[in-house]
Each structure stands twice: as C-alpha cells, then as structure tokens.
C-alpha cells in the first residue's frame, strides 16, 4: 500500500499582536475625534444663544398712564364768534411717585392747563404742528413742581384722547 501524503494546507497566519493594538488604537482615535468634533459643533451652535440670552436687556417697565378728566375751554377769537375746545388728556408717567404727586395736586394741575388752553386761538390748534406744540407746552406746564423747592413731576408724554375745536 502506498501512502500518499497530501500536502497540508498551511493555517492562515493570524495577525500579530502588534497589528491588533495598532488597529484598536486607530479605531479609538477616530471615535475620539468624531466625538470631539460633535461636541465642538454642538457647543459652537449653542454658545451664541446662551450669550445673547445673558446679554439681552431686561424688558422695559410697563409705562404708567394717568388719564385726566375731559375739559371744555373757551378759546380766544378774533372773529367775534365763540369757539370752544373740548380736550381729553392722558399723561404717560415714569413711576408711581409721579402719579401720586399728580393726584395730590390735581386741582393746581387742571387750573394750569385750563389757563394755558383758554389763551389759545382756534387757528393755532388746527394744524398737526399746533397740536404737537400744545402737547409739549402742556408737558412742560404739568412738569413744573407743585411746591417750591420740590422736584419736578416726571411726565414722559402728553397724549390726546379727545380733541374737538368748535
């Protein structure tokens, strides 16, 4: 009997321990780089939002409006006819202290307004610029201190709620 020997196949060479270490280190390096890039991308998008939220100014305080009762005044007339002005005012104030001072001195304030209005002519009040000038004049008049030595009343604006010249 003859024996034949079949050539034995060589077992596949397993990678050496050095190649495995390099492969694992390479995969870990790529994973760490991807994680770092993701964190950087996410944080760079979020940072301006957080910074703008901290830098955003606080909302302005809600203005305080103080309505005055409507007033009717005789106007100066050169044509011999009687002219009237019916006016409603609302004052825009900066704080509650000004509101309290106005409430305490309302008869004086109304008297100042009525005296100033009764000295006007209808022709002065007809154009838009005349109304704006009147609002500024009334603002200055109302802001005057009620008592000597006291601080002026802080009126931010005079708003017309009613304005009829007849």
Automatic annotation (TrEMBL):
TM region positions: 21-43
Its membrane topology: Single-pass membrane protein
Signal peptide: none
Main location: membrane
Keywords: Cell inner membrane, Cell membrane, Cell projection, Chemotaxis, Cilium, Flagellar rotation, Flagellum, Membrane, Transmembrane, Transmembrane helix
Cell compartments where the protein resides: Cell inner membrane; Cell membrane
InterPro entries per UniProt: FliL
Role description: Controls the rotational direction of flagella during chemotaxis.
Family: Belongs to the FliL family.
Protein name, per record: Flagellar protein FliL
């Amino acid at each position: 009997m003859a024996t034949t020997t079949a050539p034995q196949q060589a077992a596949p060479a397993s990678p050496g321990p050095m190649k495995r270490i390099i492969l694992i280190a390479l995969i870990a390096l790529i994973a760490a780089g991807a994680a770092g890039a993701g964190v950087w991308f996410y944080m760079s998008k979020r940072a301006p939002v957080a910074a703008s939220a901290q830098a955003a100014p606080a909302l302005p305080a809600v203005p305080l409006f103080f309505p005055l009762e409507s007033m009717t005044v005789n106007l100066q007339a050169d044509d011999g006819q009687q002219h009237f002005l019916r006016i409603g005012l609302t004052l825009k104030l900066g704080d509650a202290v000004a509101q309290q001072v106005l409430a305490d001195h309302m008869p004086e304030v109304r008297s100042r307004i009525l005296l100033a209005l009764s000295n006007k002519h209808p022709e002065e009040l007809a154009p838009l610029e005349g109304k704006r000038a009147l609002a500024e004049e009334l603002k200055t008049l109302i802001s005057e201190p009620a008592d000597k030595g006291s601080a002026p009343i802080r009126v931010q604006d005079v708003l017309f709620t009613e304005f009829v010249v007849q």
